[in-house]
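Customer ticket, subject: "Can you confirm the structure for Endonuclease/exonuclease/phosphatase family metal-dependent hydrolase?"

Message body: Hello, I'm evaluating your service for our small team and ran a test protein. I'd like someone to confirm that this is what the system normally returns, since I don't have a reference to compare against.
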Amino acid sequence: MRLATFNLLHGRSPADGIVDPDRLVAAVASLDADVLALQEVDRGQERSGRADQTALAAHALGAVEARFVPALVGTPGERWRPAEVGDADAEPTYGVGLVSRLPVARWRRIPLGSSPARLPLLIDARRPALVRDEPRVAVAAELAGDGPVGTVVATHLSFAPGVNVVQLLRLARALRDARPPVVLLGDLNLPGPVPPAVLPGWRSLVRATTFPTDDPRVQLDHVLARDPSGLEVTDAAAVPLSVSDHRALVVDVEAVTARP
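Agent reply: Thanks for trying us out. I re-ran your input and got the following:
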């Protein structure tokens, strides 16, 4: 089973600043993932041609299941409000997505909150600006059948130090009763060793720098597993693509077979 996570940057290329849906589809297709977690995903946004980017990713992979969960209604950096349960079909929206070639038995939306304060963020190369933190959310899918993974989860945590750790712990608690093995995929906005250090019982399935894509110096994107003793990683890589300022993170896993 191939698992992947990709912060799309709403499909924008850092090389030319263009958002091209065909370029996005080609990038996602090249990952050939069975399960793909998506962050910074647009739906109905003018800046990305009003596309449903989760649906584009599902089409690119030939997926049978896909779910977009909005974190906000409106446009990041402009006017927006936190998304609510009834906003599943609202537009324009922005959030996270989860795409699967495998049947899903049950979907779940998990709200994670946001930082109450405006925080400095480097918007351009010249100076930081005070930015209102976006609400954060996760989407979990319990996979049907007897594959090596029981539950997959996609999320994008806050850039606010400390807030992201609180959100990660909140998410782990929400997943206590999820069908194991549980795999959490996403941009956690935490450097490589931190997530497994604060989550007892969870293990990182890949260590690789993912940001920025042209000269990656830090791992912000993660694939973590709870109850991982039944999983064996056969391959893993951080993959540069033609869109986004993040590299995609790809992990191949299989069930550990009993040895005589």
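A couple of notes from the result: The mean pLDDT is 94. The chain has four helices and 15 strands. Feel free to reply with more questions.
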